[in-house]
Amino acid sequence: MPAKAPDGLSAPPERVDVQPVAKDEEIQRRLQSILATTGWFGGPGVTVREGIVFLTGTTEKEESRLWAGNLAKNTQGVVAVVNEIRVTPSKILDFDPTVRALSDFAREFIGLLPLLLVAAFVLALSWGVARLTVWLLRRLLLERTLSRLLREVLARAGGILVMVAGLYLVLRIAGLTQLALTLVGGTGLIGLVLGIAFRDITENFLASLFLSLQQPFREGDLVEVAGVTGYVQRLTSRVTVLMTLDGNQVLMPNSTVFRSAIRNFTSNPNRREDFIVGIGYEDSIAFAQEVALKVLADHPAILEEPEPLVLVDRLGPATVDLRVLFWLDGGQHSWSKVKSSTIRLIKRAFQEAKISLPDEAREVTFPHGVPVHMVEPASAAEPAAAAAAKPTTLPETVATKAEAGLQSEAGEIQEQARRSWTPGENLLTPSLPPEPG
User: Fold this and answer.
1) Are 226 and 241 in contact (CB under 8 A)?
2) Domain map (residue ranges) of the chain
3) Residue 224 near residue 265, CB atoms below 8 Å
4) How far is residue 409's CA from residue 333's CA, in Å, rounded to a whole number?
5) How far is CA 52 from CA 9, 10, 36, 83, 424, in A?
6) Tens-digit pLDDT profile for residues 300-327
7) pTM score
8) How many CB atoms are located within 10 Å of the residue 118 CB?
9) Which helix (H) or strand (E) holds 117?
10) CATH of 24-87, one of 3.40.50.10210, 3.40.640.10, 3.40.190.10, 3.30.1340.30
11) pLDDT tier at 380, thresholds 50, 70, 90
């Protein structure tokens, strides 16, 4: 069994040449040069006597010390290696790696300086062209009756496209073609991510743009949207503001308005109203129709065209129901007031024509019979007094004081809307082009 080598010595070789192949001086010179070139050792020293190599110096890593020993062992003409290189810890504050990194960065920056100058020039040119594009689009869109928000969005969208094209050109110049393609494709991805993150805000904003383009209503129109009826005050980038008929301000999201069915009562001011009136079975239907039709024809708020109608609707339990249909100008008259006036006048006309207006029949069962008691007849003076207390005729006026005229309340509600505070810019008000001169 071979003897174990002492510390710091390599194991003895299996065979020792009697005639050395290389001289000690050549081995020493060669190893000294290699250790100094690596820069891994502090004060490296190599001494060779009779083919035995003595290594001295310091190093920061154990791997470097072993590497030096193996190097000397594998050198031609070396019989044995005495490795006395000491492993010492590195400095607490060693700035050499930092200095080398800064030097490398400085060399790379100087090499990229021409490319950076070209990229800066292209970006500056793109920024200038983008600003010019925005200015030109604003001037061109001024000739169209578009809202200020829509005109600004279109103009800035053109400027953003120019900037994206400039950035794509810079990346192509830098040789980053794949990154440039990713940027162009990523703009749509970024838009998708933002659309998901701010879905409600984005949906309302896009709906405001489509509503301002299509203009299904104008400021001051009476509309019904999603069960809410009111006058349009304004359309903002987020909501549509309505003033209801009872004076309340409703802020409805534009996405709801865009998806809902919109009833615009102002686009066609003519409106048809109807109601049911019941007459007795003993009355003539044709005569009752003529009486009601005469009231409709004489009413100043009811239109002649389309002509009013009085139709038999159904046979009820105690009445024959007539449906009265008529048209009126909703821009001038109130629907509810004209309907109230018409019902009142038809009731008066039926009473004057002796046409009965019976109540619904009700059946009452008396399981133990109906007790009958004889009463003294009333004196003739009592019916006369009761008849004198109740008026026999109704007022001849078309509108009573309670109905406060038949005019539309649109002006009053719009005046309340003007006095109320409403947030946001009105997109329904078009930006007019500047006057010449």
Assistant:
1) no
2) 24-87, 96-197, 214-268+409-437, 270-360
3) yes
4) 8
5) 10, 10, 20, 11, 93
6) 989 998 899 999 999 988 899 999 999 9
7) 0.47
8) 13
9) helix 96-141
10) 3.30.1340.30
11) very low
